[in-house]
Amino acid sequence: MEPGTPGAGLAGPFLPQQLQQVFQAPRRPGLGSIGKPIRLLANYFQVEIPKMDVHHYEVDIKPEKCPRRVNREVVEYMVQHFKPQIFGERKPVYDGKRNIYTVTALPIGNEQVDFEVTIPGEGKDRIFKVSIKWVAMVSWRLLHDALVSGRVPVPLDSVQALDVAMRHLSSMR
User: Fold this and answer.
1) SS3 state at 109
2) Where are the beta strands (DSSP E) in the chain?
């Protein structure tokens, strides 16, 4: 299967070894009988996970060792500057390090694409070299099925992609 087709990269041989790891939640041994019951108020919110696949890309920004804030600024400038050629109406989410996720595939196929991003600075512009390469399809369907059934292992790559998506907007402020 070609990258960008539904189901591409979801089977074992198509995923890098580190993405094939799954989380196995420990089984609850039962209800406790020692101690005192307490009332507990938890701070949480319900999330409805869309049953879809997302595209995972690896990003390399040079010079390295920049803070996440600077990396996010570089990626934001890159998305805006190359919007007509590469990103179109896509709104990628970025973790500030090496991972970008999009709902639809970027028109780069499997090839690594290199960009030069110039960020205006005080007195001197900063120039960054950015490379993007497609890594895999990540299935939020599998994550949804794992959470609903409780019997299927939770795919770690899906959890990571969801975490990046949930944190992205607040991290850009």
Assistant:
1) coil
2) 22-23, 53-62, 93-94, 99-102, 113-119, 126-139, 154-155
The size of the chain, in residues, is 173
Structure tokens at 133: 């390469």
Distance CA 23, CA 140 (A): 14
162 CA to centre of own chain: 6
Residues 6+ apart with CB under 8 A from 103: 52, 54, 55, 90
Rounding to the nearest 10 degrees, give the CA dihedral for residues 126, 127, 133, 138: 10
Closest CA to 142 of 33, 20, 38: 20
Provide the pLDDT confidence category of residue 122 given band limits of 50, 70 and 90. Answer: confident
Buried b (16+ CB within 10 A) or exposed e, 141-161: bbbbbbeeeeeeebbebbbbb
- Beta-strand relationship, 53-62 and 126-139: antiparallel
Torsions phi, psi of 113, nearest 5?
Answer: -120, 135
The per-residue pLDDT for range 86-101, each reduced to its tens digit, is: 999 999 999 999 999 9
Question: Would you say 38 and 32 are in contact if contact means Cβ atoms under 8 Å apart?
Answer: no
Residue 149 φ then ψ, to 5°: -80, -35
